# Entry
Amino acid sequence: MPEIELDEARCTGCGLCVDFCPVEVFDLVKKNGRYYPQAVRAERCWACDTCVGQCPQGALRVIENASELEDQSGTGPQYGTSPMISDTEKQLCHTWSNSLIRVLGLRWNPVAINLIPVGTVMPNVAKPRQKLRFCQSLMAARRGKSFLMPANCHACPDGTHILGLTEIPPKLATGELYLRFGKLDSMEAAQHMIAERPLLAPRSIQATLVTPLKDAVLVPDVIAVIALPEQMMWLCMAASYYTGKRFTFKVSGYNAQCVETTLIPYTTNGINISLGCYGCRASSDVSDDLMFMGIHRERMPELIRGLDALGRKAIPDSRNKIYLPPQT
Ligand code: SF4
Ligand code: SF4
# Structure
């Protein structure tokens, strides 16, 4: 259980931490004639730091207990000891990664994402040393890190339930928290936003796994590309190289990495684009000019063939600016 420290000298008893905690850890309790937040349900704490971020006085600190990131009992999940991806599949992931980086000129690794169902063997991949949001793990994977994250390694209550690791906390189910953040106009709008996103059954997924695509240890469910708009344009053209098809993407600004980059491709066997969300942009090192694409693994062979074809002429020609700007 994380430790929650309150600096009573700073606290004004405004109650913002109480209101914003998604899992209702605090009550305002009277002490010496004043009200202070008390962590009366501290066992629920996710260490998401929302209360810390909302406190105008800087009066709160949430300290994780690192030992909680370990498995809690001998009845925990089983971990694989032998390679869980064939040499051929591993080589394929390596080839896809090389093509994406070389043809598009990507700065960042494409990322392999797996949602590991309950009851299946998990790969032996390191867990993070501190709780991470799913979006933070994905951004770290683009820099070369690999993380296996069961529910107790996730720091975002919203993303964690969306991805099927836990139940949805009440304040997120009703949409109340979105209104408190000033992100939506009404409960009706919040309910609409929530209802439109895909959701996996609670506790159907035992862990998320992110690795650089070139280092995949499982056949990826979804491949994430983090790139500039011009590179995304070529990715879209690569995906429609053999069909000429135009895409309809589901984009919002909410739940970018868990929903738009991961779950939409995962549940539709398709491709989706995301502009990012306020959450992932605030909590990771991703720069303002980057956007995201999630590609179901079944879409990859054709997309890579299309990309390689574009890379032979269309991309280098266009990047040489064959259409000159008007002369003035
Ligand atoms: S860290 Fe998150 S879950 Fe824990 S008390 Fe603060 S807001 Fe609530
Ligand atoms: S938000 Fe900060 S100042 Fe307000 S009650 Fe909570 S700890 Fe105290």
Q: What stands out?
A: Residues 6, 11-17, 37, 54-55, 57, 59-60 surround iron/sulfur cluster (ligand 2) (CB under 6 Å).
